[in-house]
Specification:
With 253 residues, the protein is α/β, with parallel strands linked by helices. 45% of the residues lie in helices and 17% in strands. The radius of gyration is 20 Å and the shape is globular.
């Protein structure tokens, strides 16, 4: 089965204008990062609403595999969650249970929050939430690679995204992706995902479309393409370097 390629990016700045700018660029989804930023729940809800207003899917990367955190961001309106450090089938089951209403999960059935139309759309929401809510497991530890087959067979896990930085760190080789055992771990991730016909995810760090194309050609279909501050920082540095190079030419002295 051919998997549809879905391209998104990370939101790390808690201002709706950033989301509006990014959302107009043509992404399929944007993910609000609440693991490595200071974005709080109030800001997250505003960002979720802005993403939805632009017709994109709002994901939230939660700070941990925590039922209370997952419940709050979903009640705020998130349509999917990215859960860090899913290292076992038990971790995967907990993430799914936290995200799904009974009988599939154990999420508290709230009818008053934004996701449920503040109580006015609860019936409609309750009928579709378990189908529409996406659960993406981050594979970022060697334990997760060793348990990947069991993780991928947990019902309700819609996909995974591999985290090379933390994966290499868990092997005592942070950032050393060319080490044979790190490369082997990434290859195992790909092989098992393909064999089980599960979508693979990857975060392409540099805002270079050619790197994204390479991952698509390798079979990755859930792709995070850089992030807000890196897009901004790279462009600033590139253009300022051009100016400095011109100023350093003798004809401009």
């Amino acid at each position: 089965m051919t998997k549809r390629v879905s391209i998104g990016s990370w939101i790390t700045l808690g201002h709706f204008s950033i989301v509006e700018i990014m959302a107009s660029a043509g992404f399929d989804w944007l993910c609000i990062d609440m693991e490595h930023t200071v974005i709080d729940y109030f800001e997250a809800q505003q960002l979720i609403a802005t993403i939805q207003s632009k017709g994109l899917i709002p994901y939230v990367r939660v700070g941990e595999n925590n039922t209370r955190i997952i419940k709050r961001v979903l009640d705020a309106g998130a349509e999917g969650i990215i859960v860090p450090f899913v290292n076992s089938s038990k971790d995967a089951e907990k993430a799914v249970e936290s995200a799904k209403y009974p009988p599939q999960g154990k999420r508290g059935v709230n009818s008053l929050s934004r996701a449920q139309g503040y109580g006015f759309n609860f019936e409609e929401y309750a009928q579709t939430v378990n189908i529409k809510t996406k659960v993406i497991a981050q594979i970022e530890h060697i334990d997760a690679i060793n348990n990947l087959e069991q993780i991928l067979t947990v019902k309700g896990i819609d996909g995974t995204i591999v985290g090379p930085y933390d994966l290499s760190g868990s092997m005592g080789k942070p950032g050393r992706y060319n080490e044979p055992d790190v490369m082997d771990a990434l290859k195992r991730y790909e092989d098992i995902s393909v064999r089980l016909n599960k979508p693979m995810g990857f975060h392409v760090i540099k805002p270079d479309y050619q790197l994204l194309i390479e991952k698509i050609e390798q079979g990755y279909s859930f792709l995070a393409f850089s992030w807000d501050t890196y897009f901004l920082g790279v462009k600033c540095r590139e253009e300022m370097q051009k100016i400095k190079d011109i100023k350093n030419c003798k004809e401009y002295e």
